[in-house]
């Protein structure tokens, strides 16, 4: 599967001299009004405690994040067609959201966001 963007011609891919390839099994997100920083790390068990060693962060504009969401979903669902459902341990499935506080209940945006995340979680869990 190739991501070409909206250009009529295919882009040529070329790796920069400082290209980095790394493994990550943990991702965190740092959103701002302008963009989304994605921090990639690896869980390491040091002295019996899980510690995430952050390795690299990539910041992308929201337009690229939206396109990445489409292509990431397409790749995951394509892999599941070819190899079967991707198994997840129960302890890594996103938890249900806690109830809204009275202040959040009074905020229409907070209520919409809460409903959206509940809906996305339900769709995700159903797909497992």
Q: Helix proportion of residues, in percent? A: 25-40%
Number of strands: 3
H/E topology pattern = EEEHHH
Main sheet: which strands, in order across? 1-2-3
| Structural class determined from secondary elements | alpha+beta
Q: What low-confidence regions span 5 or more consecutive residues with pLDDT below 50?
A: none
Q: Radius of gyration, Cα only, in angstroms?
A: 18 Å
How far apart the termini lie comes to: 23 Å
Q: Estimate the global geometry from the Cα principal axes.
A: globular
Strand residues, percent:
15-25%
Mean pLDDT: 92
Total helical segments? 3
Give a short account of the largest sheet. Answer: 3 strands, antiparallel
How would you portray this structure in words?
With 128 residues, this protein is an alpha+beta fold. The chain has a domain at 87-128. It is built from three helices and three strands, in the order E-E-E-H-H-H. Strands 1-2-3 form a three-stranded antiparallel sheet. A hairpin with a 3-residue loop joins strand 1 and strand 2 (35-46). The chain is globular.
């Amino acid at each position: 599967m190739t991501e070409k963007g909206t250009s009529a011609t295919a882009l040529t891919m070329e790796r920069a001299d400082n290209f980095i390839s790394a493994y990550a099994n943990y991702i965190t997100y740092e959103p701002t009004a302008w963009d989304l920083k994605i921090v990639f790390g690896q869980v390491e068990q040091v002295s019996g405690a899980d510690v995430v060693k952050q390795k690299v962060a990539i910041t992308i504009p929201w337009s690229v994040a939206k396109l990445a969401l489409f292509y990431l979903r397409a790749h995951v669902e394509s892999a599941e067609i070819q190899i079967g459902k991707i198994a997840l341990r129960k302890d890594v499935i996103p938890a249900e959201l806690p109830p809204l506080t009275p202040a959040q209940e009074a905020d229409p945006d907070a209520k919409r966001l809460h409903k959206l995340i509940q809906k996305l979680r339900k769709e995700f869990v159903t797909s497992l």
